[in-house]
Write a structure and sequence with these properties.
alpha+beta, 4-stranded antiparallel beta sheet, about 35% helix
Length: about 90
């Protein structure tokens, strides 16, 4: 029995599908690798306990190299020293 001759277009299409499948598998592996390395990196250290003024509730948190700030629902930004935890500055938002 003779094997039928494969047309050139069909051979090209088969190789193209194989290459695209390989590229897609490699891309998924790279994306998963990047997600694992980015998400497992050291997260910023948040203070264990923060004392807010009476009646204030924290709505946002941000930090710098030697300070951290809390935005409250009373339209204030409270800036604390990272080492001592002491209140450095209060900014009133108008």
């Amino acid at each position: 029995m003779d094997d039928p001759i494969e047309p050139a277009n069909l051979r090209f299409l088969r190789r193209l599908v194989t290459v695209l499948t390989t590229v897609m598998i490699c891309g998924v592996i790279v994306v998963i690798g990047l997600l694992v390395t980015r998400l497992s990196s050291d997260a910023p250290v948040v203070p264990a306990e923060i004392t807010l003024p009476d009646g204030a509730t924290a709505t946002a948190f941000t930090q710098g190299s030697d300070w951290y700030a809390i935005v409250t629902d009373t339209n204030q930004i409270l800036i604390y020293d990272r080492l001592t935890g002491a209140l450095r500055q209060t900014v009133v938002i108008n």
